[in-house]
Amino acid sequence: MELHYYTLKRQAKELSEICRDARIEACFTQKKNELTLQLWGKENRAFQLILSTDPDYPFLLHRNFQKRASQSKDVLQTLKAKKISRFSIMSADRIIIMHFHSTPIRLFMQYFLKRTNFFVIGENDIVLEAFKQNKKYSGQRYAIPGPIRTELLEKKMSEFTALIRRPPHKTLYQQLKKSFFEMNNTILREIEYRSKIDLSQNSAEINEKEMELLYHTVQKFLQQCLQDRPRVYIKENVPFIFSLTTLEHLQNLPVEFFLNLNEALTYFIFKKKKSDENEQLTHRLRTLIDNKIEQINLVMSRLHNQPDEDVQRKNYQKWGELILAQYHDIPKGISPVRIRDLYDPNQNFINIDINPELSLPENAQQYFDKARKVAENLRRVKQNLHRLQKQKQEILKIQTLLQNQLDGNAIKKIEQKLKEMHILQTDPEKLQEIYRPYKQYFFEGWEIWVGKSARDNDALTFQKAHKEDTWMHAQGVSGSHVIVRHKKPTQNPPQNVISYAARLAGGNSKAKHSTVVPVMMTKVKYVRKPKGSAPGAVSAERVKTLFAEPFAH
Fold first, then answer.
1. Cα–Cα distance measured from residue 419 to residue 474, given in angstroms and rounded to the nearest whole number
2. Which pLDDT value is given to residue 145?
3. Measuring CA to CA, how many Å separate 262 from each of 268, 509, 523?
4. What pairs with residue 160 in β-bridges?
5. Radius of gyration (C-alpha) of the chain in whole angstroms
6. Lowest mean pLDDT across 108-112, 317-321, 423-427
7. pLDDT tier, 434 (very low <50, low <70, confident <90, very high otherwise)
């Protein structure tokens, strides 16, 4: 009820007494949606009027003088040096008018919920200045809301009855709310509680005795709204409802009484605003933590489910050792080479790929380097898993804390803790760095990436790769996207690197058992993701087709 007509009507009366003959020394804004009038009043007292157009918390309050912020901005300068004579309220509407001595200029304070605004009005109701959207309203005639309505307190029983019984007949609840601007949900619940009349019944069915009881209940309640001490009902230690009088249907809730409207409204608005902000922040932190835990679980699952790189590391190490142990028996210039597996009890032969342009010791060293890289990656995976598990445990503790009813300071401490943990600055890419959507290869100093899955193919091509990198894919079959990383955008890979990458593309496809696989090649910038296509599915332009003998590492 903080913006109820009778609240504003009582405010106009209180403010007339407080601000009469006060002079406006300054008019400025220093917060979004907030207008401050600095006043010099009786007994040489400086004080301020604070007017808010906040869509969620519009208000009109007075307070003691506070120092003006350095970043504030002068507005509505037409009001400067004007001396206030009185406040009034527009009949049956939520518009308070500030009047001044010796001038037709007025300040219209329009409290229309989401359309709250303040207008400096001159002669013939022309808008001289507007607090919000000044260019739109300046020079226009202020549209006085109409038609003029009569307060319910001024209506006779016969008028009240006629409005309630008029067709089309709806429930009493609907008819009261539609017919009388003073009615809102809180008041209607109170009227129903006091009268013991069921407002869900059809308005045509109410008898004369009930109608009379309803009328007098409404009249008595509204009279009390104009006379009683304002109060705030508390629920779960938070301001719940501001009221001008007793709300009997809330009699079980604690209540705070105040000497005047300004005290009551200041308490209600700022306490409730703080509570709402804390609730919103708590909800945001809960959502953020839920998302973070989901991300961590996803990454941990991927780390756990990576291919068995320890087997790959052992193979690389073994192949390097076999090459060194038998390099005198290995013919030069061919690949793959057929070599005896000395670690196999049966001494079977295996095929090992080598680079014919390198010596056999250099080929062996390449395999040792690959084994070392795989070992380093395994170590990083274990470290990342340990770190993620530790972070997850910390986050789960905070998640448990946020299930409790916390005050603002406790919530702020949790927010700060999450900032220190770098969770509030969530960057999905940073989390995903732990998991690479590709296998990494090196050939003659060039880096080659091979996608691990269909979804990883999309991440590899459209998130990780550079637009000038070379892109490959086995033609006509599903398989991995292959990216050859360019050392410089204008430097294309040599032919032997292209051939090696093409063999990887063939070997990491459904055609890996074929003798020769056709492989598409283009630049990443010419690869497109059709709307609605399946993971990994792409279309490519400016394609060149290569033929490669497939192999997979």
1. 45
2. 67
3. 10, 75, 69
4. none
5. 39
6. 423-427
7. very low
**pLDDT exceeds cutoff 90 at 20:** yes
Structure confidence by residue, pLDDT tens digits, 289-310: 888 888 888 777 777 766 566 7
State the pLDDT at residue 427.
47
Give the CATH superfamily of 5-137.
Answer: ibrinogen binding protein from staphylococcus aureus domain (2.30.310.10)
- Characterize the bridge pairing of strands 106-110 and 117-121: antiparallel
Residues 57-78 as b or e (16 or more Cβ within 10 Å = b)? bbbbbbeeeeeeeeeeeebbeb
| Residues contacting residue 458 through CB under 8 Å, at least 6 positions apart | 529, 535, 536
pLDDT tens digits for range 369-399 = 988 888 887 787 788 788 888 888 888 988 8
Q: Return the closest-CA partner of residue 286 out of 169, 404, 154, 451.
A: 404
What distance in Å separates the CA atoms of residue 511 and residue 532, rounded to the nearest whole number? 26
Which amino acid type is present at position 206? I
The structural domains of the chain, with segments of one domain joined by +, span 5-137, 152-257, 304-432, 438-548
pLDDT band at 146 (very low <50, low <70, confident <90, very high): low
Say how far apart CA 96 and CA 109 lie, in whole Å. Answer: 5
Q: Please tell me the distance from the alpha carbon of residue 382 to that of residue 389, in angstroms, as a whole number.
A: 11
DSSP 250: G
d(CA 235, CA 95): 30
In contact, 323 and 352? CB cutoff 8 Å: yes
- C-alpha angle with apex 525: 519 to 528, nearest 5 degrees? 75
Note whether 60 and 111 are within 8 A (CB).
Answer: yes
| 138/264 Cα distance (integer angstroms) | 35
Sheet holding 231-235, edge to edge: 238-243, 231-235, 255-257
Q: Hey, which CATH number is domain 152-257, 2.60.40.10, 3.40.50.300, 3.30.360.10, 1.10.8.50?
A: 1.10.8.50
* pLDDT tens per residue across span 251-298: 999 999 999 999 999 999 999 998 888 888 888 888 888 888 888 887
Q: Which pair of structure tokens corresponds to residue 275?
A: 């509570």
Q: 192-238 pLDDT, tens per residue? A: 999 999 999 999 999 999 999 999 999 999 999 999 999 999 998 88
Task: Please enumerate, as own/partner, the contacts of 91-99 that have beta carbons within 8 Å and a separation of 24 or more.
Answer: 91/148, 91/149, 91/151, 92/5, 92/148, 92/149, 92/150, 92/151, 92/181, 93/5, 93/145, 93/149, 93/181, 94/3, 94/5, 94/8, 95/145, 96/8, 96/11, 96/12, 96/15, 96/60, 98/19
Alpha-carbon separation of residue 125 from 60, 142, 192, 445 (angstroms): 22, 6, 41, 80
DSSP state of 480: -
Which of 248, 250, 249 lies closest to 234, judged by CA? 250
